[in-house]
Write a structure and sequence with these properties.
The chain has 347 residues and is of the alpha/beta class. The protein is 50% helix and 14% strand. The strands form 2 sheets. An 8-stranded mixed β-sheet has the order 5-2-1-6-7-8-9-10, sandwiched between helices. The chain binds 1,4-dihydronicotinamide adenine dinucleotide (NAI) and 1,3-dihydroxyacetonephosphate (13P).
Length: 347
Amino acid sequence: MTQNVAVMGAGSWGTALAILLSKNGHNVTLWCYQEEERIMLEKSRENLSYLPGVLIPNNIHLTSDYEEALLDKKIIVITIPSKFIRSNMEKFSPYLKEDQIIVNASKGLENDTLLTMSQVISEVVPQCAVAVLSGPSHAEEVARDIPTACVISSKSKKVAELVQDVFMTPKFRVYTNPDLIGVELGGALKNVIALAAGIVDGLGFGDNTKAALMTRGMVEITRLGVAMGGDIQTFNGLSGIGDLIVTCTSMHSRNRRAGILIGQGKSLEEALKEVQMVVEGVHSAKAAYALSKKYNVEMPIIRQIIEVLFEGKSPKEAVVDLMLRDKRSEHQKEDIHWTHSVSWKDE
Ligand SMILES: NC(=O)C1=CN([C@@H]2O[C@H](COP(=O)(O)OP(=O)(O)OC[C@H]3O[C@@H](n4cnc5c(N)ncnc54)[C@H](O)[C@@H]3O)[C@@H](O)[C@H]2O)C=CC1
Ligand SMILES: O=C(CO)COP(=O)(O)O
């Protein structure tokens, strides 16, 4: 069924999703944060800053007026960097009605509150149902119709299935998942591990090091995720291991690219300047570390990332400290009882 959709945020992900949704037959409006951004997109029908080389179809309506973008849209897709989501949702909220569905596609955590993005959105816009899109999906590939599989989660099965239909194409396969917290944590936390994976690449270590980092990173994500109510199946799925693999191994990943630069000796500021796009893992690292303390969960890689990013520790020293931790079994007592099961609210 054709829907009226607004995509809020014209960075690389918003542009790619707007293209996907318009090719899927929906009426799409793409909201640009700044008027200059809209003018650039309108002029070239290409997002030269964030997604060069991909044509933006003429049937995508571009606007920098959020009131106009939100009016009469059934689906509102949020692709704004996570640290700006609360302030933007506060602006949008007066124009959002009960029958509209918000789909958050951004991956991050709020530092001050330690909330996930869907929790922030539900707090600011309690009148709307919220769903989350996550999974291994670089904008550069989705925009070029490269086969991709993702997950839609929501507290409501009805909402999840409606949104699944909106996004699903022969090139973009969408699964539903009732585990909202697990899906969101998988998407946000893998960015921090991808920074670490980039750092070991930048240091010039090998495939063994990277495999160890990714595997032990996944253990940390799962430990925290399960402690916060997530389901282990989610962390073994597209929004867990799937997104970790793509982000830790792809040159499209901004988190990995920033990590490589830091591993090569650049400062955090220099790395962010060079990448020029959003590097969510830098913001989520602090929240992840605070959550590990709050839930009393051991996350040694996250701890080292904090020291490297914000406390001046050398990446080499961080790797040495991880390798020299006390010897132990791979099967820790706290990791054994991973048996939550999450279900839909409306079933
Ligand atoms: N790029 C990708 O492949 C994917 C990105 N995501 C997530 O999507 C979210 C957005 O990322 P990208 O589109 O990649 O970012 P980007 O770096 O490509 O673009 C950033 C966008 O944020 C806008 N912006 C800057 N300040 C703003 C403010 N104060 N308020 C609102 N917008 C502002 C810029 O105008 C620009 O359009 C992130 O959470 C990211 O993790 C998720 C899946 C894939
Ligand atoms: O989430 C992503 C792919 O699934 C994008 O990752 P980066 O933000 O590291 O580019």
